[in-house]
Description:
single chain, disordered N terminus, alpha/beta, Glutaredoxin
Amino acid sequence: MHDIYNMGIFNKIFNGSSEPKAEKLLPWIPLNSIEQLDAIVEKSKGKTQLIFKHSTRCGISRMVMNQFVSAYDVDANADLYYLDLLSYRDVSNEVGFRFQVMHQSPQLLILRNDEVVAHASHGSINELNLTKFL
């Protein structure tokens, strides 16, 4: 009994709580076809469009994505697209070509009024002030 009690204290000190954390869910829209890019550009005329390019095999990409998810305001007035660039490499290549942004992973592109108004990669993603583009 004494060991169980001590583990509870240990978990509270190092994990912040013994309660499981609820996972924050973002309103991701899967980006898995080149045809979707035309619609994203068109929708950018009235609403900010965000494209998050993610490599599912990269630890840095996962870390940046987790930080992005934690900081993202789910009530933001933007459409949020998720691009698994390993599964949809052709879409990732077209994003770079169409928007004239050199491929990075992870990468966030912000579109307003038919164009990319900002983009960032790696740790710089979480330094972007998204509110000024909404």
